[in-house]
Amino acid sequence: MTGKPDQNQAKAGRITISVDAMGGDAGPAVVVAGIAMSAEKNPDIGFILHGPAEQLKPLVARKRTLEGRVEIRDVRDVVTMEDKPSQVMRNGKGTSMWSALDAIKNGEAAGAVSCGNTGALMALSMLRLRKLPGVNRPAIAILWPSLNPQGFNVMLDVGADVKADAEDLLQYALMGTSYVRNSMDIARPRVGLLNVGTEEHKGSAVLKEAHALIAGHAAQANYEFTGFVEGSDIPGDTADVIVTDGFTGNVAIKTGEGTARVMRTALREAFEYSFLSRIAAVLAMTSLKRLSKRMDPRRVNGGVFLGLNGTVVKSHGGADAMGVSAAVKLAFRLAQHGFAEKLAARVASAGAHTQDDTAPRGMRAATEKD
Amino acid sequence: MTGKPDQNQAKAGRITISVDAMGGDAGPAVVVAGIAMSAEKNPDIGFILHGPAEQLKPLVARKRTLEGRVEIRDVRDVVTMEDKPSQVMRNGKGTSMWSALDAIKNGEAAGAVSCGNTGALMALSMLRLRKLPGVNRPAIAILWPSLNPQGFNVMLDVGADVKADAEDLLQYALMGTSYVRNSMDIARPRVGLLNVGTEEHKGSAVLKEAHALIAGHAAQANYEFTGFVEGSDIPGDTADVIVTDGFTGNVAIKTGEGTARVMRTALREAFEYSFLSRIAAVLAMTSLKRLSKRMDPRRVNGGVFLGLNGTVVKSHGGADAMGVSAAVKLAFRLAQHGFAEKLAARVASAGAHTQDDTAPRGMRAATEKD
């Protein structure tokens, strides 16, 4: 797809994001409200929207800000949360998810966003977009609220694949640092490898091997390797990129999200408990709103699929309009930075040191923020 | 050790807990303050305290409530947080940790508590107390604040061993339910197996095999198997016992603890932000204290080592007096219920269905709360 998004961008004067309108918990109305929020804030964005036209047309027509900026692709089928990835790969051709990915494949859009079934979206993305040369396992990277100056860490993999060997973990480190450079302004990200302790003798043989590999590539790939990190470092200020296998990463993010949700509920109950505490809540409103905004998972909605020929952002299935808008913004920002092309160059360049040079011609040119 | 704690209990009219005074981050003064808090609340508890006598004697003498209830064992060496388990197993004989465990082994105490190095404590516990017949890997179980009626889940393993096969996970389910029955009043605990999704086709081959094994033992061992659970279910109300391998469990608890700590800090900052929010904090004091108490990790301090001939409670290394007291209370409660003996009977009874009967004579008698 290299080059095609740029043509598209030049032609339309804006960046086009392909959006799967179906498959989220809240239905297409919320997705349309989300892209309308994005369009309102960003004059340089346009959309291709995938789903049943008779549902989408009236929703889009109601949003003035979307006038002339949305192309609807009429597709009838929807991937549900219950569908198995293997079924979707065989029978998914008429779905909005498939159509949304094909718009990247055909160079019509610079990135895709879907709120649908994660497993199916990853399977279809691999099928339609294919893995980057040299990538064994693509990964899902998410932003995690943390005490870092930038307010977030990137963690990967959080569930593309339940397994990862040492080479995979090295690639996650390379892809994660590339992602951080293109979504935040950090020239030399700190990389930590998730383990049960920070001492070098801890953990499995795979982790020890990955430790050596990631340490060995730090200078060449321009990141700082902080070594093993623990679960408590994920929301801390130890690393900008947390590398782990998809099983551990998935359990960690869901545990963190669950803990935060329980605490928010308990806080709300505490303020509703008595007359005095209700008054206190009113007085503290501004401070509590600031806290709530800082901790709001919707602000950082969007898992990015790394290691594919194209940028795919998975929005949370239960995202509201603000969440969808955040996912769209992320896809836009990565497209604007030419992230997919830079990542391809980075992986190819690292691969060249350990394997035969498989980098496609011309891909090595990317240097600015790779 | 079966029988000996009862003799001890009968002789002294109270239950004796063996306490390692050394190795915690805050030193022996905090440990002594902790056991004094326990002694104050509980007239049926006595202590054997292990560490350098010249340090411990004045500390104990200063606490009136400890008069006549503490026997000091003078040992010179201390296991530090930096010591490797293998070193401690070879050279740890003169340490307070070793001595604390030997008091269980010799039947002088019904349970042991240490704030020291987790890896060393587990290695020494296995060396001195030995594994229960039929147990392959002992596990560390912790209480986790949750939305359950009882306010806590039990999760295991959280770090005794980084690996676990399907048989190990079944044993964790059996040991965890036994623990829940003896530390909370739940006759038929709900057991969940931690995975990246709740659908039966998800996860590794080991998890699928464990799913079948745990389901197959539910009726006989009198628990309800709720199937696969996700990280978000850990602080929820889906299961009373969460079963996982030590690597995943360790990352999950540290991620949850880290997230909770960051949120508490952010909440404090929010209330210190402005004049109005400071007034609000004063008005909401009672409610916030209630919330803080509910979320206070010190209340549930204590990882229990399961699968050994004896009860060992690992207190957090950074525990304060209240934390130490909570760990002591847990050891006392489990001793009071004859937990170690009941657990042995439970594991032996489950083993009898899949292997040759290795249960020692007479152990099958335990029925009340096994």
From TrEMBL, chains A, B:
SUPFAM superfamilies: Isocitrate/Isopropylmalate dehydrogenase-like. Residues 350-370 are annotated as: Disordered. Its main location: cytoplasm. GO terms for biological process: fatty acid biosynthetic process; phospholipid biosynthetic process. It catalyses: a fatty acyl-[ACP] + phosphate = an acyl phosphate + holo-[ACP]. It is an enzyme of class 2 (transferase). This is Phosphate acyltransferase. The keyword 4Fe-4S does not apply. The keyword RNA-binding does not apply. The lineage of its organism: Bacteria, Pseudomonadati, Pseudomonadota, Alphaproteobacteria, Rhodobacterales. GO terms for molecular function: phosphate:acyl-[acyl carrier protein] acyltransferase activity. Its EC number is 2.3.1.274. It comes from the Bacteria. Catalyzes the reversible formation of acyl-phosphate (acyl-PO(4)) from acyl-[acyl-carrier-protein] (acyl-ACP). This enzyme utilizes acyl-ACP as fatty acyl donor, but not acyl-CoA. It comes from Leisingera methylohalidivorans DSM 14336. Pathway: Lipid metabolism; phospholipid metabolism. Belongs to the PlsX family. Keywords: Acyltransferase, Cytoplasm, Lipid biosynthesis, Lipid metabolism, Phospholipid biosynthesis, Phospholipid metabolism, Transferase. Coiled coil: none annotated. It holds the Pfam family FA_synthesis. NCBIfam families: plsX (TIGR00182). Homodimer. Probably interacts with PlsY. It is found in: Cytoplasm. GO terms for cellular component: cytoplasm.
